[in-house]
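Good morning,

Attaching, inline, the backbone tokens for the sequence recovery test we're adding to the shared suite. The designed sequence is right after.
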């Protein structure tokens, strides 16, 4: 089974990456997709604990929404979802590490993202993934 890790952030570019993977030549049931959404770490400083919990919960809910929306688009495009992961940390490093852990044969991702604090993809993230990845990377604009 050929496994593709698709990094998503809810942007149109990330959705195009899903659509591009759906167009890859394959036999029925021969391709499995792993979705990942990586949020940037937020450093809170002196924010009180209850406020930190609210921020973390809002981030987690947003991440779940992005993953669910991507899973629906993936299924609508005839792809098989193997797993989905929400994590936070250095974005490029997290994507590459998850590709290694899941045994992905290919990483697919958009080249531009949502921007600001909620962003997943910037040109530098895509470039860092290309440089760090042990597998081919499909960039979609």
């Amino acid at each position: 089974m050929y496994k593709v890790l698709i990094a998503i952030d809810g942007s149109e570019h990330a959705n195009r990456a899903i659509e591009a993977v759906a167009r890859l030549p394959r036999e029925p049931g021969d391709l499995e997709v792993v979705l990942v959404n990586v949020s940037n770490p937020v450093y809170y400083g002196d924010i009180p604990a209850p406020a930190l919990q609210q921020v973390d919960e809002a981030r987690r809910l947003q991440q779940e929404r992005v993953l669910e929306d991507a899973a629906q688009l993936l299924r609508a495009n005839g792809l098989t979802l193997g797993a989905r992961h929400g994590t936070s940390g250095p974005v490029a490093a997290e994507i590459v590490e998850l590709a290694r852990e899941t045994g992905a044969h290919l990483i697919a991702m958009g080249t531009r993202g949502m921007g600001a604090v909620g962003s997943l993809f910037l040109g530098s993230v895509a470039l860092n993934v290309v440089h760090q990845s042990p597998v081919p990377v499909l960039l979609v604009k």
